[in-house]
Amino acid sequence: MFETLFGSVTAVTRHRVGPLLAERERYLYHCAAGGATLVSQRNRACAMIRVAERMAQGDLGRIGAQRLREVILEDGPAVAPRTVANLMKHARPWFKFLGWWEQARPPIAFEQDLDRFVTWMRDERGLTPCTIDQWRYRTATFLRWCKETGRTLGGLNPEDIDAYFVTYGAQRWSRISAGHIAGMLRVFLRHAASIGSCRAGLAESILSHRRYQLETLPYALDWKDVRRLLATTSGDTELDIRDRAIMLLLAVYGMRRGEVAALRLEHIDQEGGQLRIWRLKRRQPQLYPLVPSVAQALARYIDVARPQVAHTEVFIRAQAPRTPISVDGIYEIVRRRLRPLQIQAAHLGPHALRHSCAAKMLADGLTLKEIGDHLGHRSTASTMTYAKVDMVGLRQVGEFDLGDLQ
To answer: Do 132 and 85 sit in the same domain of this protein?
Structure first.
């Protein structure tokens, strides 16, 4: 490995005889398999040997951020801040790869009660992982506010709940968000009361403001804007080819970003003309006919642009490490391409394309039941939110064919 990175015999010898040789080589091979460039590998190797040469015996097996900084600064205070940052940047993922990294864990307020709530949501309510993660985050935020303001869970009263919405939420939440959080807190406090962590009846004291069905603005993009968005992916670069396939899946099949990120190579049957999507909310797969424009985009990405990696997920990062795209990565792809278009919409992310798909299908005369089945909904009521568009918009998008996005 080092012979391919360095032309100097002295440099190769230093890396060969230096400490932690096996650990350094193992990580370099791992990065190479992920598509790391020669320059980045050389920089990585230099950072690792510099850190390894200064580590003490007690650092082997476990090392944290503070100790790593001390190791780097052993050369004295003359170490430039940029050098410190560079060494930290390369050494931290190396130690994480080895399993040596001690991650500083921020204290969690009322952790036992939070863990019981999560277990109840998962094992008794059977909620989806994405819902559990969201509710855990919201609940942890509330519990942290309680601790920071000197409140205990057992001593909470209705006035404390009101204070949370007034002092913490007033500048952070919209009317809709406040309603969702109120509903979530009622569920949490009922559960907490059932295990004796808070007083009974506290949940019933939380009153939500009146909400009107479909009161928010529609999220859907005009179908002309969907075409404009797709036009930004008309190039021949790996990024354009990959992003076009992602956009088409979002717009044509109304896939959630998590469903796109989870799509695997074996889910695409080009010969049989079928696409298998694992619907997150239904927690079961759905088979769809493979629309020609989507089939072409997927085939072009997989056969031409997709890097040769061992991962079975379809969409891979365009930069090293060549790992599958995350859910947040899907969001950034759409947001980055929508921003320059200056499109006016309530939200500019992957879900806007899901709304656009529903609006287009409604414009084409499909029923709410048919649209809900296409989107993977469990009830028609869920589809109503996606289908709220003005009649002028319906007439405009009705001229286009849903699958004909060239």
So the answer is: no
Average pLDDT for the chain: 83
* CATH number of the domain where residue 191 is located: 1.10.150.130
Q: Which residue has the higher pLDDT, 211 or 109?
A: 109
High-pLDDT (> 70) share of the chain, %:
83
Give the chain's radius of gyration (CA, Å). 26
Query: Which residue has 């286009």 as its token pair?
Result: 400
Q: Does 227 qualify as catalytic in the annotation?
A: no
pTM: 0.61
Catalytic annotation on 256? yes
**Residue 43 near residue 83, CB atoms below 8 Å:** no
Number of domains in the chain: 3
Task: Establish whether 50 is a catalytic residue.
Answer: no
Alpha helix ranges (H) inside 53-128:
65-72, 81-98, 111-120
Task: Mark whether 191 is an active-site residue.
Answer: no
User: In whole angstroms, what is the distance from residue 21 CA to residue 48 CA?
Assistant: 10
Q: Are residues 98 and 144 in the same domain?
A: no
Whether 386 is catalytic is yes
pLDDT tens-digit profile of 61-84?
999 999 999 988 886 667 788 889
Q: Residue 352 and residue 356: Cα distance in Å, rounded?
A: 6
pLDDT at 366 over 80: no
List the domain range (segments joined by +) for residue 125: 111-205
Catalytic residue among 15, 351, 374, 388, which? 351
Tell me whether residue 402 is in a domain: no
Whether 195 and 85 map to the same domain: the answer is no
Tokens of 394: 């319906």
